[in-house]
Design goal:
By secondary structure, the chain is of the alpha/beta class. The protein folds into two domains: 1-42, no CATH class; 43-294, Divalent-metal-dependent TIM barrel enzymes (TIM Barrel), CATH 3.20.20.150. It has helices at 3-17, 29-42, 61-70, 81-89, 114-130, 148-168, 192-202, 213-219, 223-229, 256-265, 283-294; strands at 20-21, 24-25, 48-52, 75-79, 93-97, 135-138, 172-176, 207-212, 234-238, 271-274. The strands form two sheets. Strands 5-4-3-10-9-8-7-6 form an eight-stranded parallel sheet. Strands 1-2 form a two-stranded antiparallel ribbon. Helix 6 packs across helix 7 and helix 9 packs parallel to helix 10. 41% of the residues are buried.
Length: 296
């Protein structure tokens, strides 16, 4: 090929794929869309992928929803009411609703919190239902000297009217299992059997558990056996690398593909939400990696 023809070919190629700037080649939307669709189409469809918003708070929500959609994520967790519409407009769902009043430390195990929590959660449940959101998160609260049995009884009493309201609105309240060893000292709902007892005590299909794999690895281990045993009590999962709560790749101790296979084998139809704190310079690459690892 002559030099002239080579220059012409290079020029035409440059025009067809975009301009070259300081950041490198700018890929046109059509090609970028094809890449995104290719990744989405490569997913097996056995896991309903979601992600927790707070781990990517440095990215504007509208952009984050778009990028999440591009990598096959179906929903975003822990969104407040004013954020729901932004995500829904981007074709995603809010997989787990919350609001500013929801407190990990001041929960339903303390009767002094009941009146205020009931009033605010009643409204949140109604709002969620009106927006087509199916799950709302709740917390036990810290022990502060409250015994295990007292905590069970008092959580049951405090949650009962809200669960009835949730039943009428086709919403499920989910209590998160958190570790009290590293991240949430003194939290009461820190072991799966305690949460299971509370679900049995309340006795409604509209009250279940959020099984956080990271937190329960710290408190209990034995992840696969536990989720197999209590599969009917769990309506939501969170991920995170142990130790450190970072990426879920081979830098940490959990075998996430095996855990996901167990979840699929249990015919789980809810969401698995990534809730690790990215350490990669490109946090969305870390998220994409997590989705790939969990897609079994």
């Amino acid at each position: 090929m002559s030099k002239l023809n080579r220059r012409k070919a290079i020029k035409n190629l440059s025009l067809s794929i975009g301009a070259i700037g300081l950041g490198g080649v700018v890929i046109p939307q059509s090609i970028s869309g094809d890449i995104s669709n290719s990744f989405q189409n490569s997913l097996k469809g056995n896991i309903n992928h979601a992600v927790c918003r707070w781990c990517y708070g440095n990215i504007e929500l509208e952009e984050f929803a778009e990028k999440s959609n591009d990598i096959g994520i179906k929903a975003i967790d822990l969104l407040k009411p004013y954020e729901w519409e932004v995500v829904i407009k981007k074709g995603l769902k809010c997989s787990l609703a919350t609001d500013t009043f929801a407190s990990i430390t001041k929960g339903f195990n303390d009767p002094r919190n009941h009146e205020e929590l009931q009033k605010k959660y009643f409204n949140l449940i109604s709002q969620a239902s009106n927006s087509g959101i199916k799950q709302v998160i709740v917390f036990s609260g810290n022990k502060n000297g409250i015994s295990s049995d007292q905590g069970l009884e008092q959580c049951s009493v405090g949650l009962e009217p809200l669960v009835k309201h949730a039943e009428k609105n086709d919403v499920t309240l989910v209590m998160e299992l958190l570790n009290s060893k590293v991240d949430h000292k003194d939290y009461q709902c820190d072991h799966t059997p305690w949460g299971v007892q509370l679900v049995d005590k309340i006795g409604s299909t509209n009250f279940k558990l959020l099984y956080d794999i990271y937190h329960m690895q710290i408190m209990e281990g034995d992840i696969i056996a536990t989720i197999n045993k209590y599969k009917n009590y769990i309506s939501h999962y969170h991920t995170g690398g142990v130790p450190g709560r970072h990426e879920i790749n081979d830098t940490q101790e959990l075998n996430y593909p095996a855990i996901m296979k167990a979840i699929v084998a249990n015919k789980f139809t809810g969401y698995v939400a990534q809730e690790f704190i990215p350490t990669y310079q490109d946090s969305l690459e870390a998220l994409k990696e997590g989705i790939t690892i969990c897609d079994v």
